[in-house]
Design brief:
- This protein starts with a strand and ends in a 7-residue tail after the last helix.
- Helices cover 32% and strands 13% of the residues.
- The chain is α+β, with helices and mostly antiparallel strands.
Length: 1455
């Protein structure tokens, strides 16, 4: 493996990553020389007090044959009764029996026994390291089995501790025998041998039990104190907890008396976890060791208790004794990097007991804290060189949506086994009291962390202390569930509480009092339980094949080579065990989201109760009956209530909960085998990752000519001196890494989770293989881009509520276009904005729209929705009066609807009568109005339908929303008169109050002209009437607001004004009712009409514009010198959010497409004159409707009307400043990733700043291109005016949101903005040149003689006669063969298509029919010329993926 290594200075000069260690702590007895207090610290007993533990371990065990007359040897203790007090005799009553008795001896003259066993002779071999006890002390056989055939000879075996193990070696401290037939069980903290000592047919079964512990005497226990710390000042975000010393020494700071020649024991490593008030965890690692303690600090009473003074001769000191005290050094961190902490603390301890050194110990501590960062994606591997012989390797944790913890599922499985691990899972799910204990303190934290991690996504809410100090042992008597880890020596003094489940990690046993029923895994769901047990059993058998040695003992070569492979295997097993528990939890909670109850009304007092948020009984009935007991307990736990609340209102764990939802969708509880794809994906470790080397602290410089002399030598761990610590060195440019940019509440930052990104990536990869799906995938990401910019758009809008409704109509438009969304960010952003701007009703409508689209909201979206409903301010007051007025209105208008056919019939009769009388020329003829549609059902409390489409003449439509601003406030009498007139009671000779003023009714009968077919007001519009009103106000076509009141009526005050306030649906002031920026209507497909009909109809000419922007995505492929157009670029993009390349459809070479931009700024120039009215010139050349079709030459003046240059108000020689540029044209996938990064780093406010086009031009111009392509409203065009040099724009607060949006005109062109003069001119440009049609850009280069007008007319003639194959053949013949002929940058398909659109007009060319004809022509030519030759000459048509992209993104662009 080759590792890329860089020095620390070069790699860390960019930014300052988070520290690995926050604090360094020294704990123990105060070392200031003061006498120790007389009173020793003894913990209060939390249970029955046990007899004192033995002072010496068991060193020998023997078997005595009482039937042979053997006596118990001197110093041995005989076991004559069972643990329950029953008399005990092996092989009792049998003839020839030896009546064996087991004896043991205590002492310290030899190493203690550490393990016992039972060996059946002839059936197996003794275990390695064990000795067989085959004879008694009197040389008789030590067989425990009764004599006779069929009974194997049974002997005891034992294993002794190694020589020189020291005083603190673990050993057997007690023995006992149990009789299961008498109801006796294994005593707590004892290990029972699995083989029966009485295997015969006679007599009860007898089992031997032993206890392993640490037998110590002459010990004084005190509460630990803080002796030193670094740094001295507290971090504001994380102050040092006061309880750290007692966690560093959980069994207390002890003073012990040892024999003088006793060796120091190996330091003990332990870990602990501190939980803050907010639930955040702080991980600690401590190293406990012994140091010499001065006798002078002990009083006479303390010396006598330690055995330093003779008990017979008062005051005489005993020789050969040494006094030692226990201390600890520890580190605190927010990261559970326990192996690295162990290596660092071990190095410091070795440094303190060796020497002399040139650097003080404090230099290494400060260097490690300030210069060792936590691994990050920029520094995935960090090799810390602490000394020439000590180093450690830090690796970046595997990227996983699961929360990071100090759990070790391998140690859990290795210590407990599969069955006991599942039993503990059941205990945690039902919130039992769990007490985990072990003689190895470093094992407690990892196992306890695994216990609370195996129930993910549930979060343990009760007390949790993985390593509980004795000073906090009172928690064992708490009346609440808890998970506590404690040292096993605690039970040498106390019995466990009666209602606690004790788990012994050393003996793999679970102890529970007989008063409670034992936990049975049978209550778990049957099939998921079987799959979990089988998976854990299989993994349990693989644990012995992995390396489990300590990392600090590994060499440097191992750390850089085999370490990753070994850790990779262990990490794989770790993830598989965790994945097995995760699958079980996913099966356990399968389908829980169906039973969530969303909030749909104003919040009340109990809105946050779990009964209102979750359908408990429905969920319980959906489970199998055998597991109802488990589910009944689970549903009433605190952690399940917290889980439902997090799912309903969101939390900091939303990404993890969303990942769990994806796991729920993957699992199938009815299967008896796990799914083939793992739920927890493990990233493979790469051998070429960057490795950062951190060198040791620099030694002080040595003067020339002198030798360096070490000056720091320690007898023990020193007292820390502040002046010896190295101050942190600020590196140039090394600034703290800012966290994720938390935008202000007014600018919610929409972020996708990692899970959403993975799902979107998989969807894109699947869609890339299907042309239609790929186009919809790109379209969905484009809409996601718009919603990312929505916070800035809403903030800049004059009416933010209207802007939110605009976004809602965009959602409905997406549904109508069947857009495939890769995630739920669109809905989530809008819900979050509704929450901020107090629009809970709109948030409910968004949720209904989401469900109508068939989208089940995930945890994040669901949380934003409920939060918006819960925290938003709902409309106050009772709507009873308004409901009654709405009912009255419905009755009146319903009667009007029924009377309208009578009026129509009467009008028809009158018309017939006039015709018969011959008076049709003198009397006005009444036109028959269009048929009306029936009344829609009122779906809102205000009496307003959610879907009120605009209506033609004679229909009941909504009145203008500007009624209250443009006319007098109507009175009650006026409203009643309006309703009476609607019924036809009054004559229509005049109304005291105009109908369009928003009076009593929100509907009116209009007599305007019917809207033309396909117009925004027609029936083909997809938007509601409310949007149509806003569009009319935006374009200036609606009724104008008048500043004067109607003279016919004067508004009354008093009662009438109060009633009007109740009747007005809107609660906002009239001044705020301004036309909002609404979504442009979705244009319906153009109706088939005669070309002459529209050629003679001039285009509507807008007013002059302040700036014009031309955009084109047409890009040149340098490999084959071909122009690739927008839809072909889209089809060539890869489904990768990091790939900027597209694929050329002609040469298949990747290249980066460019987005060309031209900005034409006309603000400094004088206002241009208005263009001549349409139809003043060329009308005499226009063909007569109904006559023969015009020839091509007659269409010159008509086609000139299609040129946007003639109708933008800038023809007349006005000076225009032109700025050009080209930027990378990004795929929506790539652009979304870049935009998310920009918003997260700088906030959504950056999208509304005028500096955006200059600071981030690629993102800006791509966003503008997509928004204009989809006709989505945005603030981006206004930023062009604000960023350009010149006079400032209008003083309006938001010029791009004013009712006149023509200040900036954005045009999207299909072809290049600036043609290449060295290439062959396109045919459509030559057509316009020959036809003398004005163009935007004149052709700068020469024109080949072969490309004449006759050729163009011939091509068009063939196209008009549906002989496209002849047109293609004529062009190929004219251009000649590729080596010598003319080279066109555009394909043959593109040349003929553009020529047809230039000759006939874009509105008169059906591209779908053209593609169909061209495809048949290509197939005809392929039979004669061959497909390969046609492709070489670029005569093929675009791919189906490109055609689908063009269809999906709307109307074609301008040529």
């Amino acid at each position: 493996m080759e590792a890329d290594a860089v020095s620390e200075g070069g790699a860390m000069a960019e930014e300052r990553p988070p520290r690995l260690v926050d604090y360094f702590v020294v704990a123990g007895l105060a070392g200031n020389g003061a006498p120790i207090p007389e009173e020793t610290w003894v913990p209060e007993p939390s249970g029955p007090l046990r007899p004192p533990r033995p002072a010496e371990p068991i060193t020998d065990v023997a078997v005595i044959a009482r039937a042979l007359g053997e006596e118990v040897p001197q110093g041995y203790t005989c076991i004559q009764a069972s643990a329950g007090g029953h008399p005990l005799e092996l092989s009792a009553g049998l003839l020839g029996g030896t009546q064996p008795i087991i004896c043991y001896r205590r002492g310290r003259d030899k190493p203690p026994l550490v393990e016992l066993g039972v060996w059946y002779e002839g059936k197996e071999r003794p275990k390695p390291g064990f000795q067989v006890l085959d004879t008694t002390p009197y040389s008789h056989s030590a067989n425990l089995a009764p004599p006779g055939p069929g009974h194997p000879r049974t002997f005891l075996t034992y294993r002794r501790a190694a020589e020189g193990a020291g005083l603190h070696a673990l050993g057997i401290t007690d023995l006992c025998l149990v009789l299961p037939s008498k109801g006796e069980g294994t005593p707590h903290t004892y290990c029972r041998l699995p083989r029966n000592l009485n295997p015969g047919m006679w007599g009860p079964a007898v089992y031997l039990c032993y206890k392993v512990g640490l037998a110590k005497a002459n010990t004084l226990v005190y509460e630990a104190e803080l002796l030193g710390r670094y740094p001295e000042e507290d971090n504001e975000a994380f102050p040092l907890p006061e309880s750290v010393p007692v966690f560093c020494l959980p069994m207390g700071a002890t003073i012990e008396c040892w024999p003088a020649q006793t060796k120091y024991p190996v330091p003990v490593f332990s870990t602990f976890v501190l939980t803050g008030a907010a639930g955040d965890k702080v991980y600690g690692a401590a190293l406990q060791f012994y140091e010499a303690f001065p006798r002078a600090r002990l009083s006479e009473r303390q010396a006598r208790a330690l055995g330093l003074l003779s008990a017979v001769e008062r005051g005489r000191a005993l020789g050969g004794r040494a006094v030692r005290s226990r201390r600890a050094i520890a580190v605190l961190s927010h990261w559970p990097a326990f192996p690295a902490f162990r290596a660092f603390l071990t190095f410091l301890y070795r440094y303190s007991v060796s020497g002399p050194h040139r650097l003080p110990l404090e230099a290494h501590i400060s260097h490690f804290i300030h210069n060792v960062p936590f691994p990050s994606p920029q520094r995935p591997r960090i090799l810390v060189q602490m000394s020439p012989y000590d180093n450690l390797l830090l690796c970046q944790p595997v990227s996983s949506p699961l929360p990071l913890s100090g759990a070790s599922f391998l140690q859990l499985l290795q210590s407990l086994g599969p069955e006991l691990a599942i039993t503990l899972l059941l205990a945690v799910l039902t919130e039992h009291k769990l007490l985990v204990h072990s003689l190895r303190p470093d094992l407690l934290t990892s196992v306890c962390e695994a216990l609370i991690s195996m129930i993910f996504p549930l979060h343990w809410q009760c007390p949790y202390i993985p390593l509980c100090p004795l000073v906090l042992a009172d928690v064992l008597s708490a009346p609440v569930p808890f998970i506590v880890g404690i040292h096993s020596s605690y039970f040498d003094l106390h019995d466990p509480p009666a209602d606690v489940i004790c788990v012994d990690l050393d003996t793999n046993t679970l102890f529970q009092t007989e008063e409670k029923k034992p936990l049975s895994p049978r209550t778990l769901p049957r099939r998921p339980y079987k799959v979990l047990l089988a998976t854990l059993t299989n993994l349990y058998q693989q644990l012995d094949q992995t390396y489990t040695g300590p990392e600090e003992e590994a060499s440097l070569e191992f750390l850089l080579t085999d370490y990753e492979a070994v850790c990779g295997r262990r990490a794989r097993l770790e993830r598989e065990v965790q994945g097995a528990f995760l699958r079980f939890m996913a099966c356990l909670l399968k389908g829980y989201r169906v039973f969530l109850r969303p909030l749909t009304q104003a919040p009340s007092e109990g809105s946050r109760d779990v009964d209102n948020l979750f359908f408990l009984q429905g969920f319980l009935k959906s489970r199998e009956r055998s597991s109802h007991k488990l589910y009944s307990q689970l549903l009433h736990t605190q952690m399940f209530s917290q889980f439902i609340e997090e799912c309903s209102f969101g939390s900091c764990r939303h990404a993890a909960l969303e990942f769990f939802d994806s796991c729920v969708d993957k699992v199938h509880p009815e299967q008896e085998k796990p799914e083939p794809t793992p739920l927890v994906e493990l990233e493979e470790l790469s051998g070429s990752e960057l490795t950062v080397f951190i060198t040791p602290p620099e030694e002080p410089p040595v003067p020339e000519g002198s030798e360096s002399t070490p000056q720091y030598c320690y007898d023990g761990f020193p007292e820390l001196q502040a002046e010896l610590f190295e101050s942190p060195q600020e590196q140039p440019g090394a600034l703290p890494v800012p966290g994720p940019s938390r935008s202000a509440p007014s600018s919610p930052a929409p972020r996708r989770t990692k899970q959403e990104m993975k799902v979107a990536q998989r969807m894109a990869q699947k869609s890339a293989a299907v042309p239609e799906l790929w186009a919809r995938c790109l379209l969905g990401h484009c809409y996601g881009l718009w919603f990312l910019c929505l916070p800035a758009y809403v903030r800049s809008a004059p009416s933010r509520v209207r802007a939110l409704h605009t976004a809602y109509h965009v959602l409905r438009q997406m549904e109508s276009r069947k857009v495939v969304l890769p995630d739920e960010v669109c809905y989530r952003v809008l819900m979050q904005l509704c929450s901020h701007y107090g629009q809970p009703v709109l948030s409910v409508r968004v949720m209904l729209e989401m469900r109508r689209a068939g989208i089940v909201p995930n945890t994040i979206t669901y949380g934003y929705y409920n939060k918006a409903v819960l925290e938003s301010k709902w409309p106050s007051g009772t709507p009873g009066g308004r409901l009654r007025w709405a009912k009255l209105r419905n009755v009146v208008l319903g009667a009007a609807q029924f009377r309208q056919p009578l009026r129509e019939r009467q009008q028809q009769q009158q018309a017939v009568a006039h015709q018969e009388a011959g008076s049709s020329q003198t009397e006005p003829r009444l036109e028959r109005p269009s048929p009306t549609r029936p009344l829609q059902r009122q779906t809102t409390w205000a009496g307003r339908s959610l879907r009120d489409p605009a209506s033609p003449t004679g229909r009941l439509v909504k009145s203008g929303s500007l009624g209250s601003a443009r006319g007098a406030q109507p009175t009650v009498e006026a409203g009643v008169a309006h309703m009476i007139e609607a019924l036809g009671v009054l004559e229509s000779r005049g109304s005291p109050v105009p109908w369009h003023d928003g009076s009593l009714s929100d509907l009116s009968l209009t007599g305007e002209e019917p809207a033309p077919e396909g117009s925004p007001g027609g029936s083909g519009s997809a938007l509601s009437a409310q949007s149509m009103e806003a569009l009319e106000g935006l374009s200036g076509q609606g009724p104008k607001a008048s500043g004067h009141q109607d003279e016919a009526g004067t508004p009354r005050r008093g009662l009438g004004a109060r009633l009007q306030q109740l009747l007005t649906p809107s609660r906002r002031s009239p001044a705020s009712r301004i036309p909002p920026p609404e979504l442009p209507p979705e244009q319906p497909p153009p109706a088939r009409r005669s070309p002459m009909d529209s050629l003679l109809r001039p285009r509507e000419r807008p007013g002059s514009t302040a700036s014009e922007i031309l955009l084109s995505s047409c890009s040149l492929c340098r490999a084959c010198d071909s122009l690739v157009y927008d839809e072909e670029i889209m089809a060539g993009w890869a489904p990768d959010d990091s790939n900027l390349n597209t694929t050329c459809p002609f040469c298949a070479c990747p290249f980066v497409p460019l987005l060309s931009v031209q900005t034409l700024d006309s603000r400094p120039s004088a206002p241009s004159p208005k263009p001549a009215p349409a139809g003043t010139s060329g009308s005499k050349d226009a063909p007569i409707p109904g006559g023969p079709g015009p020839v091509l030459s007659d269409r010159r003046l008509c086609l000139a009307l299609d040129e946007p240059q003639l109708c933008n108000g800038h023809m007349g020689g006005a000076s225009r400043r032109v700025d050009s540029g080209a930027w990378a044209y990004l795929s929506p996938l790539v652009l979304r990733k870049e935009l998310e990064s920009l918003v997260e780093n700088e906030g959504s406010e950056v999208l509304a700043l005028p500096e955006l086009p200059a600071a981030h031009p690629i993102i800006f111009w791509n966003l503008l291109w997509y928004f204009q392509r989809l006709r989505l409203p945005s603030i981006l065009p206004g930023l062009v005016l604000a960023s350009c040099d010149g006079p400032p724009p209008s003083q309006a607060p938001s010029p791009w949101l004013t009712p006149d949006p023509a200040s900036v005109q954005v045009r999207l062109l299909w072809d290049v903005l600036t043609p290449d003069p060295n290439s062959c001119p396109p045919l459509y440009v030559l057509w316009r040149v020959h036809s003398q049609i004005p163009q935007r850009v004149m052709w700068p280069g020469p024109v080949p003689t072969s490309l004449s007008l006759a050729l163009l007319e011939s091509v068009m003639r063939h196209v008009g006669l549906n002989e496209v194959h002849k047109a293609v053949g004529l062009l190929l013949e004219t251009l000649g063969s590729p080596p010598t002929g003319l080279h066109l940058q555009r394909s043959i398909y593109r040349e003929i298509l553009f020529l047809t659109m230039a000759a006939l007009g874009k509105d008169h060319v059906d591209i779908v029919s053209f593609d169909k004809n061209y495809k048949s022509a290509f197939n005809k030519l392929a039979s004669s010329m061959g497909k390969e030759e046609l492709r070489q000459r670029r005569a093929q048509m675009p791919t189906p993926k490109a055609i689908d992209c063009r269809k999906c993104f709307g109307a074609p662009l301008e040529c």
